[in-house]
Amino acid sequence: MINTLEGIVKKLNLLPHPEGGYYRETYRADPFSVPPKELGIDKERNLSTAIYFLLTKGNFSAFHRIKQDEVWHHYLGDAIAIHCISPEGAYEKLLLGKEFENGELPQHVVTGGTWFASETLGEYSLAGCTVAPGFDFADFEMAERTILLSYYSEHRDVITALTRNT
Hints:
The protein has 166 residues and is mainly beta.
């Protein structure tokens, strides 16, 4: 059966993601040569990228940030909580899913420069993430718990729960 964790991972050829969960890039648009300087990008970049992203119970995507906006799309399984901390320190919990009556929406945007982490609210969640300009690990920063806490100590509980390093 495909709608099991093992079936989804196999069918979609997913690999472990460095921040937690599983992923596979599904799209990488052609590059453009005039990068948007306001993002601090100084090299040729792809216009857009997209991935499948699978989270499982007991696993989470640790706090990290990228320079670009990231659009999340819910595909299958349980809802996802996306925990966001803006550069100014405002915390927001976005619910990605299809249960509108529970405050979930099938799509959310995480603004570039926002620290964010995610976790499934059930057994598993399959989502997609689209980034424009396209994702590049040069724009990726994994949060260190002690540094994030030094800036946003009022969010100690969620930062401690969703970081892996001290």
